[in-house]
Amino acid sequence: MRKSIIRTGAVLAGVLVAAPAFAQDLTFWSWRQEDRAAYEKFIETFEAANPGITVTFETFEAANYNTILSTALAGGTGPDVMMVRAYGGLENVAAAGYLEPLTTETVPALADFAAPAIAAESMRSDGAIYAVPFASQTQLVIYNKALFDANGIEEPQTWEELKAAAQKLKDAGVIPFANGTATAWQNETVTFGLGSSLMGKDFYDELMAGTTDFTDTRFTGALGQVAEVAAEYFPDGFIGLDYPSAQQLFSSGMAGMFIGGSYELATFKAQNLDIEMGVFAAPGENADDAKLVALYFDGGYAANAAGANKEASIKFLNYLASKEFGQAFADTLSNISTIPGVTFNDPLLAEVNDLNKSSIPYLMLAHFRYGEPSGSVMIQAEMQKLFAGETTPEAIGEALTTGLAAWYEPFKK
Amino acid sequence: MTGRGLWITALIVPPLAFVALFIVYPIVSAFAYAFFDWQGLRRLDFVGLENFHTVLFVEPYRSWTLNAFKNNVIVFFALMVLQNGLGFILAYALWRELPGARFHRIAVFLPVVLSTIIVAYLFKLFYHPLFGVVNISLKGLGLGFLAQPWLGQSGTALWSIIVAQAWHMVGFPTLVFLAGMQRIPGEILDAVRMETESEWVKITKIVWPLVAPSATIVFTLLFVGAFNWFELPYIMGGLDGSPFGSTDVLGLYFYRTAFGNVSSGQQDFGLGSALAVLIFIFIALVAGVITTRLRAREIQL
């Protein structure tokens, strides 16, 4: 009798210890509703290699994702693994202590990631990494190959050539640039997608070093030139043109160029299967100025610090950081994976990946979204004013510098 | 307790509990949120009136608050004319049974039934700078110089949205005023007809004073609506009140501050709640004053 009690006890204890290994259900939250099918494929691959772990993929509306996520985490009903934003958006969630800090010991693959990618998913205060970065986005100029060929236009090497190309399109009755600036965030895209090479890497380095600020003529000069091109070569009434209409103008072939992110490529292809596109970095003043694109990281995969299945979550994160996943991610989702060593079948993506080698960070997102007022909100509003002729580039430089001084230490005097 | 007492308790307690749980509790807790420091959704220390001070007196919040408030005031007065004023005139025309009154009674009220989202997108298309019906019509009439990027200019954006709102809701005050006019007894009207033929005198001396109860309702609701305005500017101007804050209103500003937007990434429940509390107190006070003042001039028929 006694023996059987001990035996039963031992079996029960064994079951208790082994129970998590039997059935580990992970929930995985994302804002990428449109990528559901692809993610379910990735998850199948993972589950096949890791019997005993199942992953449920759940998606939420992108615009309110951060709110939904932080509410759930605060209430203790958060997911095990989740997509998180980068930079300031990450800090919002990570600063409250909801995310499991990652190290190269728990996720060894992180050691090989590029430093800017890691920085995007780290918190500034403790330097710890909180997520595996998943994709980079590049702000550049996308053009319609057929329209360029029909009008004998080559990818421009100087700012003058860019204007000449736009003029040629205009003379041919084609809208040179499809962009509109009624949607606030598009102003930031246009500014840095077109102006990064004009601002230059030196300006960026000095700004980061704290030896210059936004009143620098390299910055204000670039804003002036961007506004000049916009006034001349953007659609009629572009300040009242919203983002979806601008996309339609380009994908329908009514416009020759679109200043935007590499994420637009997939959208344009979906809107018009026949469109042939090319990409280039907006040029600087002279042909030998470095042609820079504005680069940033989209977000990452993080684990819940209070999750019940942390071990399985880390296992899943390791899969999400693997080259195998990165390759599948790049192939199915047409995105630039941040995982080193991934190759791109799509020639356009391969080109974007090449352009990324000469880049500066997408300035406001990467460095100036950590306080109020955010640099992004300010540049968006100020550029709208500039496009409407209600301010000057110099006044913008002044407004940005004094506005950001509210929380950005190097600007405090 | 007697049977009757039990019976009354059983009837009163459930609704009282419902109100306490779903109305009183959220309002009180929102008030409480405003007195704490927040990091994302994590509550930190008690900070007293710090949050109120920040949104009212510290830059950049101060100018954002003032700008949004100013726009709400413009919206209120503009809609008072375009929505309530027009509503009164329409109601009078319908009441006098001008030709086609039966058709127009329905036509005027129809937009009210439409979802705000639909109205917003519809007007966004109307105002489209390239393909919008407004600009195309202007160009067709040879008035191309009047064609504007309506939603992209600080001078026209807010007014464009106000017009959309007035079109959407003008049927509501019309209906309320019409109901008020139909309650005016026939004897009074007959008596007036003996005195004067002037429509103007009839409107100012008889109809307007006698529809005072309708005016009270319509004015108060408009006031509350104008200061809680959110859907139309959100869809047509965006969360930032594009362009550069010219369509920013308190509702958008509150949402941005409390929940953050993609371009700022900051969420601050403390400041957001402080704003919400201020908006609530302001609306409650002024609506209270408006109601008592307007009630005083109502006449019992």
UniProtKB/TrEMBL annotation, chain A:
Superkingdom of the source species: Bacteria
Statement: the UniProt record of this protein carries the keyword Isomerase: no
Location, primary (coarse class): periplasm
Keyword Cytoplasm on entry: no
Key words, A-Z: Periplasm, Signal
Matching InterPro entries: Bact_solute-bd_prot1, SBP
Family as reported in the entry's similarity comment: Belongs to the bacterial solute-binding protein 1 family.
Protein name per its UniProtKB record: Sugar ABC transporter substrate-binding protein
Organism field: Devosia soli
